Amino acid sequence: MRKEIKTAVIFILFFSLCCTESHAQERRKLEQIRHEIQRLKEELKARKSSEVSLLDQIEDIEREIGLRKKLLHQLERERLKNERYLSVTRERLSSVIKSYGLLRESVAERIISLYKHGRFADWEIFFALKSLSKLPIWFKYQRIIINNDRRNMKLLQEKGREIERQKGVLEAQLRERDILIKEKIKENERLEQKKSDRDRLLKRISSERRSIQEQLKQKLQAFDEISGVIRSKERRRRSSALKHISTNFSSLRGRMMWPVEGRIVQKYGENVNPKTRTVIENIGIDIQAQEEAAVRAVCGGQILYVGWQRGMGNIVMIDHGDGYYTVYGRLEVVFVNPKEMIGEGDIIGRVGDRKSYNGSVLHFEIWKGMDHNNPERWLK
Q1: Do residues 191 and 65 lie in contact, with contact meaning Cβ atoms separated by under 8 Å?
Q2: pLDDT, tens digit, 9 for 90 and up, residues 16-49
Q3: Is residue 325's pLDDT more than 80?
Q4: What is the secondary structure of 72-121 as a DSSP string?
Q5: Within 10 A of 284 (CB to CB), how many other CB atoms are there?
Q6: 110 CB-contact burial (10 Å; exposed 0-12 / middle 13-18 / buried 19+)
């Protein structure tokens, strides 16, 4: 029994250390997202309202909506992890309390026996000894009993303290869960308010031809910024003697998984905007997906870039090695960070909802060096 109790104590201590480290990591992620939201607020506050177009206001709101959804996602992750910790802590605490109870019963029986008979029974055995040669065995037997009694009493005290400590851990986890639930409720309220602000502005912009032209201009600027990131990476790749990542990307032509389930609504190459009759070149494809659908990496690699650009929203760029890159734009929520290694099929983010300015559409590009490819020739 003593061994089982010690094993339980060791497990609880190890589990507590793991929980503490995991909790710290999740907290750092939460603080990072909160910092991003605060930085966006300060950026918008510093900008003069007269300089902000209607389209810019909508994009700014949708940018904040994405960050708040990311915060809600992280809060839910931490809440679920907290619930798992609570479950394990309750289970282990129950096990220790049960072991403590059994040990206490054993000690109580020993005390009752001593109260009823004292040490007379042991002395009866002593006087009944027929040979003095057995005296050492009798004394040894007495020492074992006394030492065992002392160990059991000490262990009871230790377990009592351990139970109280674990109760404190459980209470702290319960408080943490309540805080997370309250914060999530408040964030949901803020998110709904932002969605309401966005919907109000979208009703005004639907009839503005100038906003559509402005969006096309922003999209071209976003394409230039994307090519700039790739150009910089290509220069480093060709000039560096360091070993670069390498994947089987080139072998995926014609059998590549789709980054998101859906249908292509804007093809690669020249496209004509039906409202403005403006011709614009699309260096990727636009895929209409289900609302808030998960976006997955089409191949393993390293996250090259995570950022936000007007006309393209949140962008993730992945370096697949050998000069191959994929670009995922118009993401509402991003779940990855620069330099992070990911595998094929890993979720990197989600598209927006149907009410957003661009709808639940993913912009997807494939690059080989400085040349953009037609993704349709790669997808299966």
Answers
A1: yes
A2: 555 555 667 777 878 888 888 888 878 777 765 5
A3: yes
A4: HHHHHHHHHHHHHHHHHHHHHHHHHHHHHHHHHHHHHHHHHHHHHHTTHH
A5: 24
A6: middle
Torsion angle defined by CA atoms of residues 221, 225, 230 and 236, in that order, rounded to the nearest 10 degrees: 140
The domains found in the chain, sorted by start residue, are 2-205 (1.10.287), 209-377 (2.70.70.10)
Residue 182 and residue 2: Cα distance in Å, rounded? 42
Phi, psi of 277 (to 5 degrees): 60, 25
> Is 151 strand, coil or helix?
helix
Q: Which two tokens stand for residue 270?
A: 């020249």
The values of phi and psi at residue 379, to 5°, are -75, 145
**pLDDT above 90 for 245:** no
Question: Which tokens belong to 34?
Answer: 């909160």
Predicted TM-score of the model (pTM): 0.68
**pLDDT(126) > 50:** no
Identify whether the C-beta of residue 259 lies closer than 8 Å to the C-beta of residue 295: yes
Distance CA 113, CA 120 (A): 11
Q: Which residue(s) pair with 289 in the sheet?
A: 262
